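Give me C-alpha cells for this 252-residue protein.
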Amino acid sequence: MMVSETTRRALKEFGLTEYEVKAYIALVESGPMPASQLSTTAAIPYSKIYEILGNLERKGWVESEQGRPSKYFPKPPSAALESSRVRMENTLKSSQTDAMSELQPLYEKKRVQERPDIWIVRGQNNILDRIKETLGRTKRELLVAMPIVPDSVISMATPLLSLMNSRGVKVSVMIPSLISKEITRKLKGLAEVRVREQMFGGGIISDSNEIILLLGEEPERGLTLAISSDHAGLVRFGKSYFEFLWENSKPC
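Here you go.
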C-alpha cells in the first residue's frame, strides 16, 4: 500500500522535511533497519542519513537500538503525531506571549484603529462585487432572502451557486411569490427554494460568519445600498430572523 501524497503533505505540516518524511515512512512500511539500509530504501543520500535520523529522534518520530550496526525504529504514528502537536501548540503559545507583550503596547500607544465591524456599500457594481466575494468564501451554508431578484444578480450568482452546489454547500433561497417562473426554475436547480407573500428587506448570510443586508432594492435602479458585516451579534440576529421567516414560508 503506497502512502498518499496527502499524508506526506500532512507530515510536513507537523514540521518534517522531505527527507524526514521519506525516512519515517520507509521505517513504517518496512520496519526497523540500520541507517545504511534506510538510506537505500528511502532514497536518501548516505551523507545525510545520520543527520536526518538525529532530527527525527529529537522530534520524537524514531528511536534507536544500540548494536553493530544500530537499528532505527519508527514510533507509533499516533504517539509521534500527538507529541508533535503538543510541541507545536506550546511553541505557538510561547511565541504568542512574546509577540503580544511587545506589539500590543505599541498598538495601544499609537491608537491604531481596529477595522470596522460594519461596512456601508453603495452602488450596484460594488454590491455585486461584495456578494460575489462572500459567495466565494462560503464553505458550508448560504442563506438568501431576496424581495426582488434583479437580472444582474441572477447572471452573477448562477455560476457561483452551481459551483457551491457541487462542493456540497447547503443553499437556502427565499423569494416573493410574484417572482417569474423562469427565475424560480433556475434557482430550484441550485438551491432549496421557498416563497412568501410579503418580504421586507433582503440579505445574504454566509456560514453564520458574514451578513449582507440589501437596503436599496428598487426595480428600476437595482441594488443601490447595502450593509456588509461580520459582527457576530448582527449575523446571529439576521440568521434567527431568516429562520423565522423560512419556517413560515412555502416550499416551492
